[in-house]
Amino acid sequence: MTTDPRSPAAGGLQGARCSRCSVTVYPADDTCPRCGGPADPAALRGTGTLWTWTVQRYAPKSPPYQAPPGGFEPFALGYVELAEGVRVAAVLDVDDLDDLDAVRIGMPLSVTAGHGVPRARPTPVSEEGS
Q: What predicted TM-score, i.e. pTM, was given to this entire model?
């Protein structure tokens, strides 16, 4: 595969689907992790529900982590179960870590690819089911 599946240039979440057993994975891979068969590129919808989540309150190990210019700040991280059945780890874009009451398992989220870990944001009610 020529495009990094986690890159914004890839045009959304780029996964792969096995041509033998039909398992779908993210990020994309040429080989199925279940049966070892060939996998073909598959665009993922990027919508799903929050499967589980936590708050990362300490900086990851370096390397490979590089602190941003302003230093490390805690962030919410979760697994989003996409419509295709794939669970994707994503940073949860919430307004304020001191007020996490709105975050709940099962809430609808939209996931977008970016440099590094994908990002997820709550899906507005008007976008649910689309």
A: 0.79
